[in-house]
Amino acid sequence: MSASVEDVLGHCFARPELLREALTHRSAAGAARGQRAAASNERMEFMGDRVLGLLIAEWLVERYPAEPEGALGRRLAHLVSQPVLAVVAESVGIGAVLAVSPGEARAGVKKRATVLADALEAALGALYLDGGLEPARAFVRRAWQEAMSALTVPPKDAKTALQEWALARGWELPRYSIASRSGPPHAPAFTVSVAAGGQNGTGSAGSKRAAEQIAAEDLLGRLAR
Fold this sequence. Notes:
The chain is mainly alpha-helical. The protein folds into two domains: 2-150, Orthogonal Bundle (Ribonuclease iii, N-terminal Endonuclease Domain, Chain A), CATH 1.10.1520.10; 158-224, Double Stranded RNA Binding Domain (2-Layer Sandwich). The chain contains twelve helices and three strands; from the N terminus they run αααααααααααβββα. The protein has helices spanning 2-9, 16-22, 42-63, 69-79, 82-92, 94-97, 102-106, 113-131, 133-143, 145-150, 158-168, 208-224, and strands at 175-182, 189-196, 199-205. A three-stranded antiparallel beta sheet has the order 1-2-3.
């Protein structure tokens, strides 16, 4: 498994245990075959999230030297958003090598956008910890090339775009509500739902604001279809 993932990441791991951890979903964490307890990829995801933000920001500043901060910020938010991460994760095959429990595998957890996005960030975190910024930068620029090239103009904030969509059609303003909140205080998980135009969207993230943005993106996609 690791050899194929190393090929995708473009890096031979000196510490393969980092990659193993990055590809272990929390459902599969714990003692396995008499070995020491396996850690889930949540810590690696935490690291990868920060590395990704830095490397995408660096790339944007290089690519758009005359663009103001606000436009760069909207591009960054899009490129590190859950939907984009899930597409990139699928394109590089992260889901196929992610270790999950048998029950979660039967439930199709490997196809969930949140799981794919988290696993991709975790793999990037492991890559950075093992090899540093240069291999992490090389991987990001390969894996995100299509998403970056497709972003010809700065995207609108998803909540703003949804509000404009609703107003243009004479609808009521979108209504957001927290569907659930879980996790410990230091690592909460919010699921938010939004309703507009007789349809609903949902989004999950570590903050209410981020979950609202993902929910708005989800609903915009449904309305566009």
